Each structure stands twice: as C-alpha cells, then as structure tokens.
Amino acid sequence: MRFIAYLSFDGRCREAFEFYAKVLDGTIVDMIAHGDTPAGEHVSKDWQDKIINAYLKVGEAELMGADSPPEFGDATMQGVSISIQIGDEARAERIFNAFADGGTVTMPLEQTFWAKKFGMVKDRYGTSWMINCADGQK
C-alpha cells in the first residue's frame, strides 16, 4: 500500500503543477483536461480546459491533483499539509522560498530541536507545505 496526496484546485491546477514541477525538479507524467474526457459533457464550457487529473513525479515521490468545478464541491484544502523530507539544506531553502513567493509563511524555515531546518508555508495556490531538513534525509 502507498498513499499519494491528491490536491484540489479552483481552476489553477495546470499552473500549480507546472510550478511544482519546476520548483521540485519533477516531471509531469499526465495532465488531462475535463474536455478531453467523456466527463467533459458534464462540465461547463469555461471548465473544458481545466484539469481533471494531473500526475507529477519527483524521484520516487508522487503528487496528483485536479481542478474541482464549483458544481462538484469546494476546492479549498483545509487541515492538510504536504510534508517534504529532504537532506539538502540549500535545496530545502530554495523550495521553501519558491513556495513563500506569493504565499504565506506560517513558520519560518529555521533550525529546530529535531531538524537542521524546518518551516511551514502555504503557497500561492493554497497548498500547505512542511519542509523538514533533518539528518539522514535524502
């Protein structure tokens, strides 16, 4: 068994996943628009180019997401953070700063009793991230 985070967006999934691929040095494996599926007929005209499924790989890590049309529910993410475990302090700082640009820092990236650096940030797309740079992390 494995768990993969699946993020919901209000119409900015493509933009968010392209940003995540760049910041995290990942590869977008799949990006399917609502209009390119049989489900497209059930989505309004202005949502045809929005994403029904996005799939990003970063090494062995995976992240998925989609745009959630208003008629299918609320796209806001609450009570969830994506935790990145990373050993490279410079890379941790670069990722944290990229997410903080246009976002909101909820805890600055700094040394803690358990990590060389730890910080929490909500990015410009509403995704909450925890960056944990501890000894023994890859």
UniProtKB/TrEMBL annotation:
Q: Name one Pfam family in it.
A: 3-dmu-9_3-mt
Q: What is this protein called?
A: VOC family protein
Boundaries of every PhnB-like domain copy: 3-131
Q: What Gene3D superfamilies does UniProt report for this protein, alphabetically? A: 2,3-Dihydroxybiphenyl 1,2-Dioxygenase, domain 1 (3.10.180.10)
Q: Which source organism does the UniProt entry give? A: Kumtagia ephedrae
Q: Which InterPro entries match?
A: Glyas_Bleomycin-R_OHBP_Dase, PhnB-like
The signal peptide here is: none
